[in-house]
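Checklist before submission:
- one chain only
- standard amino acids only
- sequence pasted in full

Submission:
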Amino acid sequence: MRFANLHDDIGNDIYDHKDQKDRLDTFHYPRFKQGNMCFSAIVCCFDGCQDWNTMCDTIRYVENAILHSKHFSFDDTKDIQVFMAVEGMCGIDKDPEERIDWLYMHHVRLASLCWNDDNALACGAKKGNKPLTDLGKRVIKEMNHVNMAIDTSHCCEWNFYDIARISTKPIIASHSNVKGLYNHYRNLSDPQLQVIQSKNGLIGGIPVRWFVDKKENNATLEDFIQVLIYIKEKIRKKEVTP
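Returned file contents:
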């Protein structure tokens, strides 16, 4: 069995280890092979403190590392096919159309408006609950225009429903579990699961144990499998009787 990953936080690791020019191949590739990974998002995460120039520097560096990799590529010509993703677009505080276009030109195909922060676009679930800003709405429309997928993981519920209402394309929760099994602020409610289903979207679970159950309960792999089963049952398309 081979696997795909919708959210792999290794973009920042590659950037933070610039002294290791081939870190993607020498450090990360063996782990991909061990896990039978064939396809992945390589994510650059921004926690709310970075400006646009910092975002650009990070993304350009990681993009270049992929372009020069022996094993990873943006197409199917090498062993592992990848695309770039951004978690938190705190650097977009003006010119949203131009900046989304720049991200797309640099192989970013999936992005979330915020991490756990409250920025010029959106509000993270850990920061509270309020609507998208006007700038955030423009970002959603431009992401639709260039066919960049919108990731709703980390955003607050109000932002989630704003995104679902404004977006004309499917939406994604790349790494979110379910409130029906564990009521964590990062997890999705049943109505949110149904909204993603109604928009032909995609949900990826997250096996980090404190999103699966309370830390003191020491969640297991079986507990995480139950999360995946729950998501499957909730978003399964109903069969149409002829």
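Reviewer check: The beta strands are 3-8, 37-45, 72-73, 80-87, 108-112, 149-151, 171-173, 202-203.
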